[in-house]
Design goal:
Shape: elongated
Oligomer: single chain
Largest sheet: 5 strands, antiparallel
Main location: membrane
Number of strands: 30
Protein name: Vacuolar protein sorting-associated protein 41 homolog
Radius of gyration: 65 Å
InterPro entries: ARM-type_fold, Beta-prop_Vps41, Clathrin_H-chain/VPS_repeat, TPR-like_helical_dom_sf, Vps41, Vps41/Vps8, WD40/YVTN_repeat-like_dom_sf, WD40_repeat_dom_sf
Strand content: 15-25%
Pfam family, one: Beta-prop_Vps41
Function: Plays a role in vesicle-mediated protein trafficking to lysosomal compartments including the endocytic membrane transport pathways.
Distance between the termini: 143 Å
Number of helices: 28
Length: 835
């Protein structure tokens, strides 16, 4: 074959999307080109083994499918040719015999490779159609010739031809198509189907005569798509007929043939029909000739159209305009369409050109889709058995997407098709580098151990994010495993490209990278600069308690509660380390030691706490002094004296034994007489009371308070005696009355208590006497400790009586020496000896 023939789709305007073609076209060349240079094709026959063409000069040529001449009986001498144009050619199924006819009135039956059954008939009239028996077993014993009648010729045993007229014809036979026992043929009126078995016609299908033309001026195109389906294309009408057997009702009439022709679909086309052939279920391939002419009144390009038909309707699936040699000069009858149905190959035959239309194969479809940037469809086709690798299509698709700047879609496609192929990933990623669009592919890069790319690839992605999208850079640092790239190289890149406007993102990135590298101290410093509380989670996760010793103050500044939760755990960090670091910030030290004192019973730092409480929270100082014994009292007293904390001084002086000094502070500095009285009561020292009484007499307004407070501790007379004559004492009368009432009440209480005591004594004595007078039960097994005999004998009264002691020992009266128990006396002597 020669070069590929381009075809133009007529499915829409140039602005509409070009439809995918159904056919690919190739022009037949080789020896055929030489033939067409000197002659014109008038008819053809397409066989799976070869091609046969009849020409205007009456020659018949046998060629292979590539257009090369094949030696046969057709090419030997002039006797197998006609004197004028060949009208029709037919070939038997085996491809052994060829029948031709012409306007010279001759019909030739020629064996291609044998002359045994050759026939040369002359009718003396135009012969437009001839047909060989399609039965394989026939051996060309029968053939049909059409002129002004339809005649069947059969070869007898004597090898003579026996003609049988099948049917008379209205005018002339224009076309014949033979399938099995049915023969379809066309006349000037329409199309008939003849049943060779029943030897009858199944009826006439009349054809509409075109306006301003005669029906016989158009070739009738007949083709059997199967044993029972006849395709008819004539003028601009297509009819699909099914030959079926009549049902029982229809067959009841004996005058009707056994089969009937049912037209199942009839529709018109927008063009004249030059040939038709089956394609698929309910689809036809139709060669068409445009009805309208070009602006210069010449013929337009022929059409190859795929039509899908239904009941009396049709739809054009696709239409291709074909550029054939000399098409402007041709008429509708100059074209024909042959086919090899099994191979889905269709031959468009023109006087000076023959083109083969083949259904687009999978690979052809893929190539066309790629050329028209329909990559998704191309990949779908590849998945159904194309020899073109899908990866090839996918990579072309990626290139296309990058070209049209659909970078995100290109990245998604990489994920979809590259799988775990490391080499392919690295090759495709470098395409994104050129576009500076690594950011788009970053989310789809493989990061698992199954397909880990070169570290340089991930670093390039990070550098691009660092340059154009710092927030995205931080997200990648969080998402990607650190083993994918060189962390130190990325850290250096951050330092080289540090920008203050992105300080927070960059510092957090550095913190993460430092932690990935195991440099936790640097990571903590980054978090602290950020004031990011994730630092505490980092400390907990990696147990960085040894690292934080120099970062204690920044941690407290960031979050005191969470910092102290770590610092107060002695198993994680020693208090001595914390205290040492907090020396430079006394307030933080106070917070820490105060919190530590609440959870620890050790008083290591109590001496420090005294000064800190005195400075930051005096309300806690006195309770602390009272409950702790782990501070130096003299130092604490010095601090309290310096700060003039008198209640604390009183407590400390009291602990030191300087109670007089403490009392003087209460009286002269605090000036709280109630506190002085309570202090004296607490220590109950006579000298303290004397000092208090002495001071009270100097201040008349407090005398009554002293009188009220010393009850039960000091004789009030001492106070009264200290009062000078004529001295005015506020509320003295009330205090004296209250004091006397108190003494009277106390006397009554003593008297009642004495009565209760006497009553209780006598009641107890009576109970003891009653108990002593009660009878005592003595068992027979009791033995006298003195004589070791039973104290009583059954049914016999003791002769001299018994003596029973409260200790439980029982003696015979005549065994008693004194009024004491010998046994108890022995134990008493033993105890005394031990002492």
């Amino acid at each position: 074959m020669a070069d590929t023939l381009p075809a133009n789709s007529d499915s829409g305007t140039d602005e509409e999307e070009e439809m995918e073609p159904k056919f690919k076209y190739q022009r037949i060349g080789n020896d055929l080109s030489n033939i067409l240079n000197t002659d014109v094709v008038t008819c053809s026959a397409i066989h799976p083994k070869f091609l046969i063409f009849g020409t205007f000069r009456g020659r018949v040529y046998l060629l292979d499918h590539q257009g090369n001449s094949v030696d046969s009986n057709l090419s030997n001498g002039d006797r197998h040719t006609h004197t004028v144009a060949v009208n029709h050619i037919d070939v038997d199924p085996k491809g052994e015999y060829v029948a031709t006819c012409s306007d010279d009135g001759r019909v030739n039956i020629t064996g291609l490779f044998s002359c045994e059954n050759n026939q040369n008939l002359s009718f003396g009239k135009f012969i437009k159609a001839v047909a060989l028996d399609p039965e394989v077993k026939s051996g060309v014993r029968r053939f049909i010739v059409g002129d002004d009648k339809l005649t069947l010729y059969e070869r007898t045993l004597l090898k003579k031809l026996k003609p049988s007229e099948l049917c008379s014809v209205e005018g002339n036979v224009l076309a014949i198509c033979w399938q099995g026992k049915f023969v379809a043929w066309a006349s000037h009126l329409g199309v008939r189907v003849y049943d060779l078995s029943e030897k009858c016609s199944l009826g006439l299908m009349k054809w509409e005569v075109p306006a301003e033309a005669r029906l016989e001026n158009f070739r009738c195109h007949l083709r059997w798509s199967n044993a029972n389906t006849l395709l008819i294309g004539w003028v601009d009408t297509i009819r699909i007929c099914v030959i079926r057997k009549r049902n029982s009702i229809e067959a009841s009439s004996s005058n009707l043939p056994g089969f009937v022709v049912d037209p199942i679909s009839t529709f018109q086309t927008t063009f004249y029909i030059c040939g038709l052939a089956p394609l698929a279920a309910s689809q036809l391939v139709v060669l068409g000739y445009r009805k309208d002419r070009s602006p210069n009144y010449k013929a337009q390009r022929p059409l190859l159209c795929v039509i899908e038909y239904k009941m009396n309707t049709s739809e054009e699936v696709c239409t291709d305009s074909l550029t054939l040699r000399g098409f402007e000069e041709y008429t509708v009858n100059d074209y024909s369409l042959g086919c090899i149905i099994e191979e889905n190959r269709y031959y468009i035959v023109a006087p000076k050109d023959i083109v083969v239309a083949s259904l687009i194969e999978t690979d052809d479809r893929v190539e066309w889709l790629i050329e028209h940037n329909k990559f998704e469809e191309a990949m779908e086709v590849c998945s159904h058995g194309s020899t073109i690798p899908m990866l090839y299509v996918a990579r072309r698709y990626i290139n296309h997407l990058l070209t049209i700047k659909q970078y995100e879609d290109a990245a998604k496609l990489c994920l979809r098709v590259l799988g775990n192929n490391k080499a392919l990933w690295e090759e495709e990623v470098f395409k994104f580098v050129k576009c500076q669009q690594l950011r788009c592919v970053s989310a789809y890069l493989p990061t698992s151990d199954d397909c880990k790319l070169d570290p340089h690839v991930y670093e390039m992605v990070l550098y691009e994010f660092l340059k154009f999208d710092v927030h995205g850079f931080l997200n990648l640092i969080k998402e990607w495993p650190p083993k994918l790239y060189d962390g130190l190289a990325v850290i250096n890149a951050i330092h080289d490209h540090f920008r203050k406007q992105n300080a927070n993102e960059l510092l957090e990135s550095l913190a993460l990278l430092y932690s990935y590298q195991g440099d936790y101290e640097s990571a903590l410093r980054m978090y602290l600069k950020l004031q990011n509380k994730d630092v505490f989670e980092l400390i907990r996760r990696f147990e960085l308690y040894d690292v934080i010793s120099k970062l204690i103050i920044p941690l407290i500044q960031l979050d005191r509660e969470r910092a102290f939760k770590i610092l107060l755990d002695k198993n994680k960090i020693k208090p001595e380390v914390v205290v040492h670091q907090l020396e430079q910030n006394q307030e933080y030290l106070y917070w820490y030691l105060d919190a530590l004192d609440k959870i620890s019973s050790q008083g290591t730092f109590h001496n420090r706490l005294v000064a800190l409480y005195a400075k930051y929270d005096r309300t806690k100082l006195l309770p602390f002094l009272r409950r702790s014994n782990d501070y130096v009292i003299q130092e604490a007293l010095a601090i309290c004296k310096r700060e003039e904390f008198y209640p604390e001084m009183v407590y400390l002086l009291g602990r030191m034994g300087s109670i007089v000094e403490a009392l003087n502070i209460i009286i002269h500095s605090i000036k709280d007489i109630e506190m002085a009285i309570e202090f004296c009561k607490e220590h109950n020292d006579e000298d303290l009371w004397n000092i208090l009484i002495e001071e009270s007499t100097k201040q008349p307004e407090i005398v009554t308070k002293v009188l009220d407070g010393i009850v039960d501790y000091v004789d009030p007379v001492l106070v009264v005696n200290k009062i000078k004559l004529g001295q005015t004492i506020p509320n003295l009368h009330q205090s004296v009355v209250q004091m006397l009432w108190h003494y009277n009440l106390e006397e009554q209480v003593h008297e009642i208590a004495h009565k209760i005591q006497l009553t209780d004594y006598f009641d107890t004595h009576a109970e003891v006497v009653a108990m002593q007078r009660r009878g005592r039960q003595v068992s027979y097994d009791k033995v006298c400790p003195k004589c070791s005999r039973p104290v009583i004998v059954k049914d016999t009264a003791p002769p001299n009586g018994l003596t029973i002691f409260n200790c439980g020992h029982i003696y015979h009266n005549n065994c008693m020496i004194d009024d004491r128990c010998d046994q108890c006396l022995d134990w008493d002597s033993i105890l005394e000896d031990d002492d």
